[in-house]
Design goal:
Shape: elongated
Helix content: 25-40%
Structural class: alpha+beta
Radius of gyration: 25 Å
Strand content: 25-35%
Number of strands: 6
Order of helices and strands: HEHHEEEEEH
């Protein structure tokens, strides 16, 4: 092959190979990929004010991120990429005060406050304080 045709042949081969990258084969199963801490509504509903760090870790699991600059905040992150390419992400931050659960914020709302107006941070009120105020 003449040297003058070599760049054109190389460009044609690369172009054809690049066109194959968008080709999807029918019937190919794509896996669902889950990453991070799986957090469910049932887990969030078990959180109560005044729980110790150990109790929260028992219910929620080990946090994905323990902030080294703020020891009173734990972050739980969860993402799921379905085989269709759709991605969902969930986040929950748990806050402690004096080593006891104070509040949390994120994509989950506990059953006890679902009927109340939405807020960025869910303040958990101990049951005895609710009874005294009501």
């Amino acid at each position: 092959m003449p040297k003058i045709l070599m760049p054109f042949a190389l460009a044609a081969v690369l172009g054809l190979m690049g066109g194959c990258s968008n080709l999807e084969f029918p019937g190919v199963y794509k896996l669902t990929i889950e990453q991070g801490n799986i957090v469910t509504q049932e887990m969030v509903d078990q959180l109560e004010p005044g729980m110790s760090r150990e109790q929260v870790e028992f219910v929620m699991g080990t946090p994905l991120v323990k902030d080294p600059f703020n020891a009173d905040r734990w972050d739980y992150l969860y993402s799921i990429e379905k085989g269709s390419g759709e991605t969902e992400q969930y986040q929950l931050s748990v806050y402690f005060e004096n080593d006891q659960l104070r509040s949390f914020s994120g994509d989950f709302v506990p059953a006890s406050v679902r009927k109340q107006p939405e807020s960025d941070v869910m303040e958990l009120t101990p049951p005895d304080e609710v009874d005294a105020a009501g």
